[in-house]
TrEMBL record:
Organism whose genome encodes this protein: Streptomyces roseolilacinus
Domain of life according to the entry: Bacteria
Cleaved signal peptide residues: 1-37
SUPFAM superfamilies documented for this protein: alpha/beta-Hydrolases
Subcellular localization: Secreted
A GO cellular component entry from the record: extracellular region
Protein name: Lipase
Pfam family, one: PETase
Domain spans labelled PET hydrolase/cutinase-like: 37-296
Keyword field: Disulfide bond, Hydrolase, Secreted, Signal
Single GO MF annotation: carboxylic ester hydrolase activity
Family in the record: Belongs to the AB hydrolase superfamily.
Length: 299
């Protein structure tokens, strides 16, 4: 049976096209298993699981260094916790402020807990333990500037990917810091206190953590209005802890860690692998009284 010349040409063209595809795949120019990581150069660590974000320690071994108050200006020194390995390149960083009358020891547990997930974490002391939120906000920014410009670990930090956290007046301070520096990638105020209730200026993705039993910064007059007065277009969330007090963020807390890690990973590392823990919104549980927010916007 004779083939039509046009059919022959089409067959040859198809064969050539298939051969070209084979060559491309053979040369490794087609999709590769590592393509997902290449899409996001900031991705750090293995794919997360519920167990991995609830764990007391993440995949990275952690080292720490003490920063004397005598060697810095603008804040009171502190402790830097950082992944020991340099094989993954630089990491995003977070400065954490204690609350009124508190020292860095009151928020120290967050240092190794977050650093072991792939962040450089600076738990700071404030200039005085009585500093107000606006001062604590400035001190958080001074600490980040020291961390990225002068610290012994500055080579491990990506200065474009920074966040702030804080407890009580330090939480109010983290809102002040985000207001002053819109380039911050994430803010996580923990049982925050501030006389300013409205934050329409914020452009930083913000997770506010309140406590149902807080009598010092009651959620009805602090955490809830802070959240409600963030721009509705912002990536924002409100997590209210169940059976918790104002001081719940001062000791190791799995719920705080789980959602803080997810928030920081999603917005500082742009790591969409963590969206599964933020969307759909977490449901009330033994540890969660309420959760409000929006699913993270995809960039």
């Amino acid at each position: 049976m004779h083939q039509n010349p046009h059919t022959k040409r089409r067959t040859r063209s198809l064969s050539s096209a298939l051969a070209a595809v084979a060559v491309v795949v053979g040369l490794g120019l087609g999709p590769t298993p590592g393509a997902h990581a290449a899409d996001n150069p900031y991705e750090r660590g293995p794919a997360p699981t519920n167990a991995s974000i609830e764990a007391v320690r993440g995949p990275y071994a952690v080292s720490e260094t003490t920063v004397s108050s005598l060697s810095v200006t603008g804040f009171g020194g502190g402790t830097i916790y950082y992944p020991t390995s340099t094989s993954d390149g630089t990491f995003g960083a977070i400065a954490v402020s204690p609350g009124y009358t508190g020292t860095q020891s009151s928020i120290a547990w967050l240092g190794p807990r977050l650093a072991s997930q792939g962040f450089v974490v600076f738990t700071i002391d404030t200039n005085t333990t009585l500093d107000q939120p606006d001062s604590r906000g400035r001190q958080l920014l001074a600490a980040l500037d020291y961390l990225t410009q002068r610290s012994s670990v500055r080579g491990r930090v990506d200065a474009t990917r920074l966040g702030v956290m804080g407890h009580s007046m330090g939480g109010g301070g983290s809102l002040e810091a985000a207001k002053s520096r819109p380039s911050l990638q994430a803010a996580v105020p923990l049982t925050p206190w501030n006389l300013d209730k409205t934050w329409p200026e914020l452009r930083t993705p913000t997770l506010i953590v309140g406590a149902d039993g807080d009598t010092i910064a009651p959620v009805s007059s602090h955490a809830e209005p802070f959240y409600e007065n963030l721009p509705s277009s912002l990536d924002r969330a409100y997590l209210e802890l169940n059976g918790a007090s104002h001081f719940s963020p001062n000791t190791s807390n799995t719920t705080i860690a789980k959602y803080s890690i997810s928030w920081l990973k999603r917005f500082i590392d742009n790591d969409t692998r963590y969206e599964q823990f933020l969307c759909p919104l977490p449901r009330p549980s033994l540890t969660i009284e309420e959760y409000r927010g929006n699913c993270p916007h995809t960039s």
